[in-house]
Each structure stands twice: as structure tokens, then as C-alpha cells.
Specification:
The structure holds 2 protein chains of 2 kinds. Chain A is built from 9 helices and 12 strands. Chain A is of the alpha/beta class. Chain A has a single domain, classed as Divalent-metal-dependent TIM barrel enzymes (TIM Barrel, Alpha-Beta Barrel). Chain B is an alpha+beta fold. The longest helix of chain B has 23 residues. Chain B has a domain of 134 residues: Outer Surface Protein A, domain 3, CATH 3.90.930.50. In chain B, the strands form 2 sheets. A 3-stranded antiparallel beta sheet of chain B has the order 2-3-4, sandwiched between helices. The interface between A and B is large, with 47 and 48 residues.
Chain lengths: 281, 260
């Protein structure tokens, strides 16, 4: 079952620790990268502990490697569970991808083939992880730059099936859908319309780098207009969803991200009005 | 159709620059070629690991210069691919790599410089533990002093330099020209820790202080420490010298606890 809507959040980055602690900005919640806090102590853990007194936190991982044919890394999962016990996040997410094969970590979100074999494999592993963590997890759609010969279904059919069969939730990355749509030539609205809104717990918004024929998901630019538009359509279809802006590189001053977040609030609000009007007509 | 494991192995082989038939698993989607699509992943793999080395070893990178750094990065990635969930741990074999591979192994200061930067990272994010204050010494009964054992905070690290690596690191940090590499006549001993403001600090140790640290780290008690100090000081001086060093350690926040 979906959890409460947290409102509008930001990714917590080291550049902004002092600003957040000192100014307590009007941000509803923060998302942390789980792996960055899987350390014994020091500054990052101290700042996180301070900030979490004032803001709800969600944990977002990059190394679960849920789609890998390597065995699940139980040491990693233990660290994740320990961190969750200490941070008490509203929820935990990772990506629908594989990162590690043969013990080698690519530190990248490598795309899954959309096959029945992969579907069964991922579903089994999510169930194990959810049992181990004692909670439902969120899976994020990763951006991709290639399509496999062996694909048997679309990405949205694949992720819908996973969420349903594993009973997990989805972190719906609007930018990733835009990036993948550009790279593979599908209509992003087809994706938005196909995903089960009852499974979407959180939305990511981010920027990317446009190379003309293809787009790379770099998280180093402001959110662009087509992604904002896609976000608005998403909220119109799905209703209110916890939304956050991810910025991982070329990190601006905090005020700039607050401004982007205000824009997300405004767009969401107008999309909800349109949704309600549509429902009444 | 290829199974999941075959595809995933082909993908990781491609990233590692090994023979791979990954292209045969990928649909042709004009106008972007399959090579370009695969190249996006190959570039991301190398550049992400390169950025990690650059970020964890800033002074080593400056010391090496662009050409040698560019030579080191792909060779290190090939020899020590990451097997860790976090990039935090990826660089831990760099000192060993520099020690064992030409042309770097011809310059032992490089491995030492890298080891020093690794120790700084370890001190930065070691587990938290409160430091005891100086008032605790006044509470110890005279009979308990000989059996007193020190428990250091987890951030405390010991470093031995056989070359002028730490001086070179300091100069580079100040954006100054480092001195030419030089082997020291006697090893320089350093202690590193994270202070109460969570900033990493380090200081050099004399041979007697370094020896006391070794005894204490191995679980020796205050009596053992005084015994070892006899190698450096007269019998009537050792207790006072041990106490002075202990007070300094407590003063800068190295000690987490004392046990009997």
C-alpha cells in the first residue's frame, strides 16, 4: 500500500548541509543516497542526524543490483538495514537495473532486458529484499541508451508486472522517461499513461544533457521544459505524488533548487486543478 | 535468445575492455549507432572511476601530473576493478598498485603519498566516539594507574613515512611546489585523528610517543608503557613523560575511554 504524500523534497547534498541546518528552508523532505552514509561516522553522518530532526528522510540506493544474476549482496543489505534502523526513513528505494556482475561493480545503472526470464528473476529478488528489510521497497525506472534484441515487452509493461508480482512500489523518474523516450523513439506519454498510478510513491525530476540525436541523464542541469510538461501530465493522471528534484553535479546554490521546487509545486497545483475539473466534467 | 546471465556478462566485459559480443545483443536504432550507444556506457564507467580517484587522491593527482595520472587511472581500473557497493572503497588498493607497477614503483614516495591520503579518508569517516576529558585523570586511584589501558577513538590512525611524503602533501595542499623526493634518515611517525569539529588533523610524533602509541594500541597498560619508555628516558623520568604524553593525547581528543 502507498504511504503518505510527503510533499516536495530535494536530494540532500554535502554542499548544502550548512545551509539546511542554519536556515531550515521550506523543503518538505530530503532524500539521501544510502551508500554515502554507510560509514562509521564523521561529518556526513553528523549532519544527517541533525537534519533528520527537522525533516522526513527517504533513502535512495544505487548499489542493490536487484537485476543482477550475481547472488544478492547480503553484507550490503545488512548495512542498508542498519542504516535504515538509524535513519528511520519514510521509505527505501533503488533502481531497476543491474550494477554488479561476477563481483565487479560497474557503479552504473545498467539496463535490464525486458524478458520473462528477467521479470521472474527480479520479482524473486525483490521479495527476498523486502522480507529482509521488513518493508516494501520502491524501484526506480533507470534511463537507458540501448534496447536489447531479446526484449519481449516494453519497459512500462515490465515495471508494471514487477510492481504487481513483487508487490513493490515505484519511484517514477519523469526525467528518465523523457531521456529513454528520446533515446529509443517512443512517446513518453505512452509510458506515463501505462504505469499503474497506485504503485507510484515518489517522483524524481532532474536535468540531462542533450546531444541532439541522444540524451544523457547527467543530473547537472536544471529541469527542462519538456520534462516539466511531462511532470504536469503525470500529476494530472496520477494525482498528488511526493516529488523531488535530483541534482548530483554542477550543484547550484540552495536558493536555485528551492526556486525549481517552487515551480514543481505550482505545476503540480495547476495539474491537480485540471485533474479535478476534468473529473467534474 | 541470449539468457540474462550471458547478456550481463557481455556487458561487464565490454565495460572492462575485455573481448565482448555485447553489440550482438543490442538492437540497431538509427540514427544513433550501436557503437555510440555502447560508448556512452564505456565512457561513464571510466569517467566515474576516474573522478573517484581524482576526488580521493587530489594531492597524488597533482604530484603525478596529468600524463602520469592518465597512465595510472586505466591501469588501476583494469588491475583493481571495483568489487565494492560504495565508491568510497574503490581507491583502497592504489598504494599497493603504485608500489608494484612500473613506472610508479621506481618512485616509492608515490605509494606513500597515496597511503597517507587513504589514512586521511579513514580518519574522516571512522565511527564516532566521544573523547574523554582531562578531569578523568583526577578520578583514578593511585593503585589503578599501572593497570590502566587506553581505548583510542576509532578515528585515530598511525602513519609511518620513510620518504618526505607528508611534507610533500602539505606543500601541495598549499598549492606550492613540493620538495624533491627524499628518503628520510629515520622514519617519520605521524598520528591522525578527527577533532571535535569533525575536521581531520595530524601531527608528528617523537620516537618515544610513537612507541607508547604502539604499546597502547596493542593493549598494553600504563605499566607496560612506562617499561618501554625506559628505552628512551631514565627511570625517574618515565612516569612523568608517560603522563605528559597521555595528557596531550587526552587534550587533543584521541582517547575514547580508559579501562582497568
Amino acid at each position: 500500500m502507498k504511504k503518505q504524500n510527503l510533499g516536495f523534497g530535494l536530494g540532500l547534498r554535502t554542499d548544502h548541509f550548512h545551509h539546511v541546518i542554519e536556515h531550515k528552508p521550506k523543503v518538505d523532505w530530503f532524500e539521501i543516497i544510502s551508500e554515502n552514509y554507510m560509514v562509521g561516522g564523521g561529518k556526513p553522518r553528523h549532519y544527517l542526524e541533525t537534519i533528520r530532526q527537522d525533516y522526513p528522510i527517504v533513502m535512495h540506493g544505487v548499489s542493490m543490483s536487484i537485476g543482477s544474476t550475481d547472488p544478492l549482496n547480503m553484507d550490503y543489505l545488512k548495512s542498508l538495514r542498519t542504516l535504515a534502523a538509524e535513519v528511520q526513513p519514510a521509505w527505501i528505494s533503488d533502481h531497476l537495473c543491474f550494477t554488479t556482475i561476477g563481483g565487479v561493480n560497474s557503479h552504473d545503472l545498467l539496463p535490464m532486458p525486458y524478458t520473462q526470464e528477467a521479470l521472474k528473476h527480479v520479482v524473486e529478488r525483490i521479495k527476498i529484499v523486502q522480507d529482509f528489510l521488513g518493508r516494501q521497497m520502491l524501484l526506480e525506472n533507470a534511463s537507458s541508451y540501448l534496447t536489447y534484441q531479446s526484449d519481449e515487452m516494453s519497459e512500462w509493461e515490465f515495471i508494471n508486472q514487477i510492481c504487481q508480482q513483487a508487490d513493490c512500489l515505484m519511484l517514477f523518474d519523469v526525467n528518465n522517461i523523457y531521456v529513454s523516450a528520446r533515446n529509443h523513439g517512443f512517446d513518453p506519454m505512452e509510458y506515463v499513461q501505462a504505469v499503474d498510478p497506485n504503485r507510484v510513491q515518489q517522483i524524481h525530476l532532474a536535468g540531462h544533457t542533450d546531444y541532439g540525436d541522444y540524451v544523457i541523464d547527467t543530473h547537472d542541469h536544471p529541469v527542462c521544459d519538456p520534462v516539466w510538461q511531462l511532470y504536469k501530465e503525470t500529476i494530472k493522471l496520477m494525482g498528488p505524488v511526493s516529488t523531488m528534484i535530483e541534482r548530483d553535479d554542477n550543484i547550484p546554490v540552495f536558493a536555485e533548487l528551492e526556486k525549481e521546487l517552487d515551480h514543481a509545486r505550482a505545476l503540480s497545483q495547476s495539474a491537480l486543478v485540471a485533474r479535478n475539473l476534468g473529473a467534474n466534467t | 535468445m541470449a539468457d540474462l546471465k550471458t547478456i550481463q556478462q557481455a556487458f561487464i566485459d565490454l565495460l572492462q575492455g575485455k573481448p565482448s559480443n555485447m553489440a550482438s545483443h543490442v538492437q540497431n536504432q538509427a540514427p544513433v549507432t550501436t557503437n555510440t550507444r555502447l560508448g556512452i556506457y564505456q565512457n561513464a564507467y571510466i569517467s566515474r572511476l576516474r573522478e573517484t580517484i581524482d576526488s580521493d587522491h587530489p594531492m597524488l593527482g597533482t604530484y603525478l601530473g596529468d600524463d602520469l595520472f592518465d597512465q595510472m587511472v586505466p591501469a588501476y581500473i583494469k588491475q583493481y576493478p571495483s568489487s565494492y557497493p560504495s565508491l568510497r572503497d574503490f581507491c583502497q588498493h592504489i598504494p599497493q598498485f603504485l608500489q608494484n607497477n612500473p613506472p610508479f614503483n621506481a618512485h616509492p614516495i608515490l605509494a606513500e603519498l597515496a597511503a597517507f591520503e587513504q589514512i586521511l579518508i579513514n580518519a574522516f569517516d571512522a565511527a564516532d566516539a566521544d573523547a574523554i576529558g582531562p578531569e578523568i585523570l583526577g578520578t583514578i586511584a593511585p593503585d589503578n594507574w599501572p593497570t590502566m589501558k587506553l581505548r583510542f577513538r576509532p578515528c585515530v590512525q598511525r602513519f609511518q613515512a620513510n620518504w618526505n611524503s607528508v611534507q610533500s602533501w602539505q606543500m601541495l595542499k598549499q598549492e606550492k611546489q613540493p620538495p624533491p623526493p627524499k628518503q628520510l634518515e629515520t622514519p617519520a611517525l605521524w598520528i591522525l585523528w578527527r577533532n571535535t569539529q569533525r575536521l581531520t588533523e595530524f601531527k608528528s610524533m617523537g620516537p618515544d610517543e610513537a612507541m607508547l602509541l604502539d604499546v597502547a594500541l596493542k593493549g598494553g597498560d600504563f605499566a607496560d608503557m612506562c617499561d618501554e619508555l625506559l628505552n628512551f628516558h631514565g627511570e625517574d623520568e618515565v612516569a612523568m613523560r608517560a603522563l605528559t604524553i597521555l595528557q596531550q593525547w587526552i587534550g587533543i581528543g584521541l582517547i575514547g575511554d580508559i579501562r582497568f
